[in-house]
């Protein structure tokens, strides 16, 4: 997990909490993928369900942020995998978190970016 939680120009109750964000992401992934085995024909539906599930749960937090969610699903095949992301923004209000979820057949990498309104 990589995180940059944003900062101090918002009230305490408006800030993004790392544990809460991690939970939101993992809950959305578990809901969409659960114990499913990798199946190429389901990738589009699964990735849509993950990102839409994240956005729905994030909206329910009622925090003053815009969100961007990305999801990558990769079959476990023994091959290497690398992802990277970066941003340039106000570190006092904006942030990102990347969560890796996996089961026996696939990796799911979800990144959520948030930007204060």
UniProtKB/TrEMBL annotation:
GO MF annotations in UniProt: dynein intermediate chain binding
Annotated InterPro entries: Tctex-1-like, Tctex-1-like_sf
GO biological process assignments: microtubule-based movement
GO cellular component: cytoplasm; cytoplasmic dynein complex
Pfam families xref list: Tctex-1
Name of the featured protein: Dynein light chain Tctex-type 1
């Amino acid at each position: 997990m990589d995180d940059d939680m944003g900062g101090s120009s918002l009230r305490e109750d408006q800030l993004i909490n790392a544990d809460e964000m991690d939970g939101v992401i993992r809950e959305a992934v578990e809901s969409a993928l659960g114990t499913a085995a990798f199946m190429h024909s389901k990738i589009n539906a699964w990735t849509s369900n993950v990102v839409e599930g994240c956005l729905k749960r994030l909206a329910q937090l009622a925090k003053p942020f815009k969100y961007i969610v990305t999801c990558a699903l990769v079959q476990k095949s023994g091959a290497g995998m690398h992802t990277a992301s970066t941003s340039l923004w106000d570190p006092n209000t904006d942030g990102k978190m990347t969560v890796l979820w996996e089961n026996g057949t696939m990796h799911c990498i979800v990144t959520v970016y948030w930007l204060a309104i």
